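Re: beginner question about structure tokens

> Can someone show what the tokenized structure looks like for a real chain? I only ever see the sequence side.

Sure, here's an example I had lying around. Input first:
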Amino acid sequence: ADGALMKGPVEAKVRLVEAVRDGTAAGKIKWDKTTSDSAFVAFFPSSTVRIARGFKDPLDTGAAVSTITDRSPDYEYHLRVYNDSGVLIEDITDTALQQEAGIPNARGLLVDIFRGARSIGLGGDQVIENLIADIGKL
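And the corresponding structure tokens:
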């Protein structure tokens, strides 16, 4: 589907994903780590957003996990939106977004959000700055 022709819920999902990606890239969204190293959460006044990465096949525990990267086709990315009561309102996957909205780079959008959320949630920038300072002391 042509982006200009999309209307309604699918268009809103695309706008949401792009807004979250842009907000994450600009450092405007504060992502927090969760109990899982493959999920991060951001809290807003009236909602919560969670980005998660998981295996497409829930029975596949990933025999070759060490060879799987963020862009591995074995992974599926979920951007989940919860209301202020914690009820799941929307679950946007890279696969569904690509199929419903016809966006060829849907996976890339969600991978970008995941990577940014992981960096922010785990304090990646501070870790890198500390490492640079430590190397400078050698």
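Each token stands for a local structural state, so reading them left to right follows the chain. Confidence is low (pLDDT under 50) at residues 1-7, 62-68.
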